[in-house]
Amino acid sequence: MDAGMEPDGSSRSDEEWEQFLRESVAGASDAPKEPSARARDVAKRLRAEPGRGPEGWRSYTPARPKRRTGWYVVGLLASLVLLVAALAPGRIVDLFAGAASSRLAAETARPTQAPPAEAGQRPTMEEPFRGSPAASWASGAAGITVPKARAVGWMSTAEVERALARSRDFLVASSLDHGVLRGEHPEKAIALINPHQRDVQDFLTTAFRTPSEKNDPLFLFSRFQPSRTRLVGDVVKTRGRLTYREGEHGALQVTADVTFVYPVTRANAGGDDEIVRTIVRRELVLSWDDPDKVSTEAGTFSILSNKYDMTNGGCGAPTGYFVPPFGTDRRADEAGTEVDPYDRSAPVGRGEPSEHDCARATRS
């Protein structure tokens, strides 16, 4: 038998023989009584090398032999992909579409055109944004771009940074807070509004008590009636940005332009019930005033203007809640003006009470 050959015809590597001989010198019980010529040669070399004697072996851990499993794994994964493609080709399209859509960059300026049309896929309870441009949007506050701060008017850079953060906090508290979406009173959002701004405070008092076309809490807050409607999942998709400039009396004037997409279903819906996406685009202009020039409180802003576009939120008399149309109720929207609720290339078109008509979404 050749040196280094095993009885079954396989050969040992030099590293394996080296480990074997070390164990033999240490008194391993399975050491061969007459090592082969190759073994004797390796042993002679070990004795000739300084620092490689028996005393040092316990501190030496030989490298584990490399297992050539990489190509087997790649082959297995490729086989699984081909199997899924054969059984459910639509899922492969969804996976690749999802990977591409997740790379959508944050909005830093008004887009020049509407987002492209999506595949005509219906939403599901597991994927409520499926078939919608919102599927590629960020979730919650992450979809609201906040610009880099710089000193403006009476505010330092640090103060502008805090004001921008609180402006976004208002959007979160008014249009993303899960309690508010379920119809609760938006206390956190209201606390950020200048308590000395009399017209807005009067509006807030009246709107929640007796909603009307002129005093509707939906002008500022997103609310659904829990006895009728429930959100699908915990995610609201958003896309938009904050901008700012110097306003009157050196104030910091912040403009928010954000679209919110709410997937909802009936309150008592089962697992396969209809899903409607209520889409709201809000434009708010906020003024962070100098308290030495305007009556205000620290950490609060005044509302200079508010506009909003809404689709799939109901066309009846104001109730203080969005009323998404399900089933045959959708016919009430057919007479409204057609709008693409995902098109952010044009300014917000309505919000004043006299213009509070009912728009019909060309896609949802």
Strand content: 15-25%
Note the overall shape: globular
Low-pLDDT stretches are 28-32, 51-69, 89-101, 351-356
C-alpha-based Rg, rounded:
34 Å
Averaged pLDDT: 80
Distance between the termini: 78 Å
Largest sheet: 7 strands, mixed
Q: Classify the helix fraction into a percent range.
A: 25-40%
**Which structural class do the helices and strands define?**
alpha+beta
SS summary, helix count: 8
Order of helices and strands, N to C? HHHHEEHHHHEEEEEEE
**Number of DSSP-assigned strands:** 9
Characterise this structure.
There is one protein chain. By secondary structure, the protein is of the alpha+beta class. It contains 8 helices and 9 strands. Strands 1, 2, 3, 4, 5, 6 and 7 form a 7-stranded mixed β-sheet that branches. A two-stranded parallel sheet has the order 8-9. A hairpin with a 5-residue loop joins strand 4 and strand 5 (about 250-265). Helix 3 packs across helix 4. The radius of gyration is 34 Å and the shape is globular. Mean pLDDT is about 80; it is low at about 30, about 50-70, about 90-100 and about 350-355.
Task: Please name the defining characteristics of this protein.
single chain; 364 residues; alpha+beta; 7-stranded mixed beta sheet; two-stranded parallel ribbon; 8 helices; 17% strand
Brief summary:
This protein is of the alpha+beta class. It is built from 8 helices and 9 strands.
